[in-house]
Design goal:
Blueprint: H1 13-26, H2 28-39, H3 50-74, H4 80-89, H5 91-123, H6 131-146, H7 150-180, E1 193-194, H8 205-219, H9 228-231, H10 240-268, E2 280-281, H11 295-304, H12 310-343, H13 361-377, H14 382-386, H15 391-413, H16 418-449, H17 454-482, E3 496-501, H18 507-518, E4 523-530, H19 533-546, E5 552-556, H20 563-576, E6 581-590, H21 594-597, H22 603-611, E7 617-625, H23 627-632
Parallel strand pairs: 3-4, 3-6, 4-5, 6-7
Antiparallel strand pairs: 1-2
Helix pairs in contact: 1-7, 1-10, 1-12, 2-8, 2-10, 3-8, 3-10, 3-15, 3-16, 4-5, 4-15, 5-6, 5-12, 5-13, 5-15, 5-17, 6-12, 6-13, 7-10, 7-11, 7-12, 8-16, 11-12, 12-13, 15-16, 20-22
Length: 652
């Protein structure tokens, strides 16, 4: 796609919702399960806390969505939390947010894909031994689709997201209607008991509080990805801010309804879900080989008449699909944020480059590699990965809301009219509430999850923060060193000394000599290295017989090296002629086939790389293209995108 076609990739609201909100919508599939996993540590004694914990998560979701709607209107240029914090709190806090979000985006891909694979295994238990291979395969598939461009990925992912929302709402409504009419649905695990861990059923006081807080922190996974819309405002159609805010409101309402419905249905149908299946009492068969069905799978079996019903398989299919596609939120957010950071010189500039489909291809590939490594290392286990999750997102939540409070303080200090002041005060109150609540959740998450693996996310974010500062220092130092002073003129050497490297007297050598003579240097010499005395003697004889006007200097090499004697000779020239320029001319022939490169040494490449570090030296390649190189220059018969780009192809 041509650069001027970027406007054609902008998203309407119906496509923007699945592109940017698939993560918070799909987290409904595992957020309730994470709450139950924590509460069942004491058997069934503490399940009475689940409704209150779910209510807390719903309230927090409402506050965060309202807060980020303010961000969308105030900072429509994209960047989301990073831009808000950088502008209002400074560069270093902004980098903290950026590092946290980048880590969290990687975790989003890993957790979403692993959870999707869990749902596949819930329907087809025989695939349990292929968990990691399935997860890595899905990451490759997501990467390939996203490399096609934002609009194409939105179209591909829209149907599964809407089907998932419809399936979950159908399941919840059907279950609640059955419950209302006295048909009390019972989950497949309702008849099983749960053995408490280490007397957990007797928890009181502080222990009970910590258990509740830990369950709340796990349930807050439902909020992951909420900020993605604020990062992607530039991808919306105009009016961008209004469309983004409307999409965020729809996302919040749908996510809350789905999460509340799934939690209510799970509690009323007595779903029993534990980390270790051997804690389920009354389980038939060997508990060590038993594969638990996810909460969504148990509810689908309960509501729709068993694990062999068509609707059960439909719910499992769309749930697995949307969980895997939920990683698409990160595949849009990570490359966009990385591009902004690269533009600000905090990440390598390659991450700012768009590919031929106008997607940030390098950022997409970097995310895929990082997430794939995590899935492989943790064997695609959701329980292990979830402990590294959500710490980064609540760090960005908290700092961005504090930044928005400062933004509104500045707006009020500017003295706007009465109506504007009233609106600013209302927005400041919303963001202030968001800052307090998300800060509290951040502390809860940090305390309850730090020793369970969250410390790894903290270390990763810290290392990334240090790396981004180092990248910025490097770019600043390079810019300062390359800057042109007010009265500075282009430096002109007094003289130019040309050196033509010679190994054999052949056509590339003659072309290099002719080129060197054409630009008339002040001195010109040919240089060869005496690696084999017989070959050197033969070259001397050929040189004298050719009548070449350029003198041939032979450099001694007792250890049969080529690079060191040449570099030493060139450095002697620069030392003997300070202020002059030395031009080293390297003749080389070029082959076209990949296997031909294996048949020729790369001495010229290595020699050039060494000479580039020598001050006052210019390295000039004079290529001689062989026949195979001429073929390689022709366009491929089926080059990808050749017709779209208007390039000629053979046979047309």
């Amino acid at each position: 796609m041509r650069s001027e076609e970027l406007g054609e990739t902008l998203l309407p609201k119906r496509l923007a919702l699945p592109v940017f909100a698939s993560d918070p919508l799909s987290s409904v599939a595992y957020a309730t399960g994470e709450i139950l996993l924590v509460l069942t540590v004491g058997g069934t004694a503490f399940l009475y806390l689940a409704p209150w914990i779910a209510l807390g998560v719903v309230a927090l979701m409402a506050v965060v969505v309202l807060s980020y709607r303010q961000v969308v209107h105030a900072y429509p240029s994209g960047g989301g939390s990073y831009e808000v914090v950088s502008r209002n709190l400074g560069a270093n806090p902004g980098l903290v947010v950026a590092a946290s979000l980048l880590v969290d985006y990687v975790m989003t891909v890993a957790v979403s894909v692993a959870s999707g694979v869990d749902n596949v295994i819930s329907a087809f238990g025989s695939l349990a031994d292929h968990r990691v291979a399935l997860a890595l395969g899905f990451v490759v598939l997501l990467t390939a689709v996203n490399l096609r461009g934002v609009r194409e990925s939105g179209r591909a992912f829209a149907a599964p997201t809407y089907l998932f929302v419809g399936a979950v709402l159908l399941m919840v409504v059907t279950g609640l209607v059955r419950l209302a009419f006295g048909d009390d649905p019972q989950a497949p695990t309702a008849h099983l008991g749960i053995a408490a861990e280490g007397g957990g059923g007797a928890l009181q006081g502080l222990g009970l509080l910590m258990l509740g807080l830990r369950a709340f922190a796990s349930g807050c996974t439902a909020l992951t990805g909420v900020e993605a819309i604020s990062n992607g405002v530039p991808a919306f159609r105009a009016p961008k801010s209004r469309n983004a805010a409307a999409t965020m409101a729809v996302m919040g309402v749908v996510a809350v309804v789905m999460f509340a419905g799934v939690t209510l249905l799970a509690l009323t149908s007595h779903v029993h879900y534990v980390e270790d299946a051997c804690r389920l009492t009354g389980l038939a068969g060997d508990c060590r080989t038993h594969t638990q069905q996810t909460v969504i799978a148990q509810l689908a079996a309960t509501v729709f008449g068993g694990s062999d019903s068509v609707l059960f398989y439909f719910v499992q299919a769309v749930t697995a699909l949307v969980l895997i596609l939920a990683a698409n939120t990160a595949f849009n957010g990570f490359p966009l944020l990385a591009s902004i950071l690269a533009r600000h010189r905090y990440l390598p500039r390659q991450l700012h480059t768009r590919g031929d489909r106008l997607a940030f291809s390098n950022g997409i590939l970097a995310l895929a590699v990082a997430a794939g490594a995590l899935l492989w290392f943790y064997e695609a286990d959701v329980t292990s990965l979830i402990h590294l999750y959500i710490l980064g997102v609540f760090t960005s939540f908290t700092l961005s809301q504090v930044g928005m409070v400062r933004h509104w303080n500045r707006a009020l200090a500017a003295g706007p009219d009465r109506a504007a002041r009233s609106a600013a005060r209302r927005s400041r109150a919303i963001n202030g509430l968001g800052a307090v609540t998300t800060a509290l959740v951040l502390v809860i998450v940090l305390v309850t999850k730090f020793t369970q693996g969250a410390w790894l996310a903290v270390v990763a974010a810290l290392l990334l923060w240090l790396a981004m500062r180092g990248v910025r220092r490097h770019y600043d130092a390079v810019a300062a060193e390359l800057a042109v002073g007010d009265d500075e003129e282009a430096p002109r050497p007094r003289q130019v000394h040309a050196v033509v490297l010679v190994s054999t007297l052949h056509r590339p050598t003659l072309r290099a000599l002719g080129y060197a003579q054409a630009f008339r240097p002040d001195t010109l010499e040919a240089v060869t290295v005496d690696v084999e005395p017989e070959a050197t003697a033969e070259l001397r004889a050929q040189w004298e017989g050719s009548g070449a006007e350029v003198p041939l200097r032979v450099l001694d090499s007792p250890f049969r090296e080529i690079t060191k004697p040449v570099v030493a000779h060139v450095r002697e020239l620069t030392a003997a002629h300070p202020g002059d320029a030395v031009a080293v001319i390297v003749p080389e022939y070029v082959v076209g086939r990949w296997w031909e490169h294996l048949l020729h040494n790369q001495s010229a490449l290595w020699l050039k790389s060494r000479l580039l570090f020598t001050p006052g030296v210019m390295v000039i390649s004079v290529p001689w293209q062989l026949t195979s190189a001429g073929r390689a220059d022709r366009p491929a018969r089926r080059a990808p995108g050749a017709v779209r780009r208007g390039e000629p192809t053979r046979g047309r």
